[in-house]
Structures are given as structure tokens and as C-alpha cells.
TrEMBL record:
Keywords: Transferase. This is Putative glutathione S-transferase. GO terms for molecular function: glutathione transferase activity. The lineage of its organism: Bacteria, Pseudomonadati, Pseudomonadota, Gammaproteobacteria, Oceanospirillales. It holds the Pfam family GST_N_2.
Amino acid sequence: MLVNGTWQENWHPVQAKDEEGRFIRQLSSFRHWITPDGSPGITGKGGYKAEKDRYHLYVAYICPWASRTLMVRQLKGLTNLISMTVVNPRLSDNGWQFGGFPGANDDDLNGAQYLHELYSQADPTYTGRATVPILWDKKTRTIVSNESADILRMLNNAFEAFGQQGPNLYPADLADDIDALNEVIYNNLNNGVYQAGFASTQQAYEEAYDKVFLTLDELEARLSDGRAYLFGERLTETDVRLFVTLVRFDAAYHGLFKCNRYTLIAMPYLHAFMQRIYAINGIAETVNIEHIKAGYYSIKALNPSGIVPVGPAII
Ligand SMILES: N[C@@H](CCC(=O)N[C@@H](CS)C(=O)NCC(=O)O)C(=O)O
């Protein structure tokens, strides 16, 4: 991680933990918003007006938080407005790095070797982890946001003047329900699988495992009435947020994170839901199973040999 703008060599890939060995995820630090006219968003400073070719996403295909921003970029028809760079899926001793893996890019925009260089460029006194995704402003050469939940919301509606397409992923009539279900899915699934995987006590692991499968059971039951998406026939950001965890489940979380009561294939409604979203135009491009497997299984604290499993044969 960076301390006062300088990279610390002996950083730990396993994030913070509490006294009972529960994994704790760092809060994001850059919380500005792109808005149609450059006025400030709900947090941070103004000055980030929606413009063509101004913004760039730095992402990792392994990362569910980064992938959800890529999904919304596709769903909202923003691929020609917002460019992107994919990091190497394997976390190095210097954090995320550019190039050196099929499908990973060099940083043609800023010429950085490691992602943390962009954090210190944006804030020379930054202390914290250098995480993906980053929403980068090419004009002022800084980070607009490193919080994917906010990035989903801004990509949903900031670019309407540019003929932005796709469904409204956060419609006003569902906003409260979306917020409530997002919270459950974040705590129990998106982050719940990490809490199982990075638990350092049996109790913390079992607590996380139970939440993961209890929530998957609830969602399986919810989808069993034949609805296409979590709130019925309309695709929302909550579906996107669930999808990124489901699509990694059998390839990474079932094995490496010990979330192994069932594979996703054993939960037919959730599996069909995942396949339905995967089939939406542009979504398959945001999923790279080779990056997902290589990335998760390169976490030395969990898999010292670095061996990447061959399967699963079907996702
Ligand atoms: N709050 C962030 C979390 C992002 C996050 O935790 N990204 C992970 C990859 S999945 C990361 O970059 N980890 C590197 C590190 O912690 O050093 C978001 O949702 O945007």
C-alpha cells in the first residue's frame, strides 16, 4: 500500500481484520462525481463535466468491483465515450501492474508500470491501498472516483446528452428497494465470499460461509417465480452487482474461498439468471475467466504454490 505517497514493500495482500479474525475492506478515498454540467455530486468537488474522450477506467477483470463498472459501461453504450485499461490479473509485490499477461494492457495513457503510481500522481500524500477500479480524468490527470458503487450511478445517467442508451439501472420507483437489496448482497455475497476466503479464524469463516449460502438460498427462492431479474422484468444495478459474484463463484469462490456447499450450477434459478445476464449484448466481453482464475489463485496467502485449477469445465 501507499503511505504518504510512497509505496511500502512489505504491504499485505490480505486486508485489515478485526479482533475475531474478520476481514475488513478499506473505504474508498476519491469520491467525486461526473455530472452533466460539472456541478458537484453528492460527495466531493465539482468540475467533472460529462465530456467525450475525457474519462478512462482502470480495471482488473479479476475484480468484481471493477467488472461491475465495465458492465454498466457496456449496458449504457459508453464504450466509445470512456476508454479503459486492464491490469495484469496477478497482484505483484508492488500491487497491480500493467502488461505482462494475455489480455492485460500497458498504461498507454500515463506510462505507469504500477497502478499505485496513479494514486500518488493524483495525490502525492495519499495513504491507502491502490485499488481498482479507478475512474481517471484525462483533462486534469487525476482520480475522479475509486468507488465502484458511485461509478455505477454516474455512468447510469451523467452522459444522457451524448445519446446514452440502455435501461435506467436505478429507476426512482425502485430506488429504496434497490438500496436495501444492494446492502444485503454487498454484505453477504460480494464481500461475504471475501470474508469467508480471508477469514483467519474458523469462527469468522463459518459465520461468512453461513451468510453466503443463506443469502444464495433466499435469492434462489426469489427467482423461482420465473422473474427474469431481481425486481421483475427490469434489469437494475442490483442485478449487475449480483452477477459479478455469481460469475466468479464456481471458478474462484467455491474452491479458493471455501464457499463449497454447492457450486452455482446446483442452484438452477441463480444459474439461469447468471446466464441470462451473460447473454446480454456486451456483457461477455467484461468476463475473462482466465484472468479471474489466474488472479484469485495468485493470492499467495491463500495459495502458496500458485497452481491455477484447470476447471471448472462449465461456468
Ligand atoms: N471500494 C472499492 C473496492 C475495490 C477493491 O477492493 N478492489 C480490489 C480488487 S477486487 C483491489 O484493488 N485490491 C488491491 C489492494 O487491496 O491492494 C470499490 O468498490 O470500488
